[in-house]
# Entry
Amino acid sequence: MTKPAASALAGLGTAALAAAAARGGYAVLSRRPPGGRGTWARTNHRGERVTLVEGPAVAAAAAAAAAVAPGLPRRARAALAVAGTAAGAFGCYDDLAGRGDRRGFRGHLGALAVGEVTTGAVKLAGIGGAGLCAAALLGGAPADVMINAGLTAGGANLLNLFDLRPGRAIKVALASGALLAAGPPGTARGAACRAVAAPAGAALALLPDDLAERAMLGDTGANALGAMLGAAAAASLARPARIALLAGIAALTAASEVVSFTKVIERTPPLRWLDMLGRRPAAQSGTGARTAPPENQGSEAAARPALEIPEQATADIP
# Structure
């Protein structure tokens, strides 16, 4: 068997393991959610109840599959597992304990400026620490450790910003994984395929439930998937490509504070088509739908119990 074929086979095996674990974990958590169903239930923009247990199922399955992924160096397996586990854990803390009244970097940093420590601020610090730990496990020069930490933490935060429509964050994760596996010159493509297999497999397995609006990733799932994709990029890209990617993540994150990703997608026909692919048409909206917070609040806002919020921002949570 050729080396590329062996890499592809190893990646498929890891993806299949992650997918099976995600489906199994989701089934178990759906039947017996810790703390009861109400702990994980949220109301979406249609006024319908969805569950957040998709997030823990995806995060745990992806991290576990990455930890035993064949063909990956031990350091890469450890970095992926740490990134997914820690980012998912801090995301889960914010999903369950956060109030949602402070959102985005500006909101959390503004709260810190007046002495208020929000759950979002704790999550941001925790994910930053997780990124640093994952980068240290990958090793390299100090400059590489800092770049890789930024990729892991930045990937976690950025993917969470797309968790505003059914299936959107998973589609972005799958597209990102495919681009990373294809890779620019200097990419260790075999390693990239194996590194993205676990998060991609877990995400793909629960895409149908996300699109059908039975469940949502929440911060738990989106942060975990984004962190693992960032760690996969750190483990497989050459330094120039990693620097360029980190700059792109930083630019998109900054743009999210002032630009509505949803509006950009809706005004761009190819992006809108991809965004709507597999989703329920808007015409099927239920009665009594609740309004939603502004887009830059991300799934952090979507994960809160339903509140009556001003109508002008209806377009921005799943």
Remarks:
- Residues 50-279+290-304 form one domain.
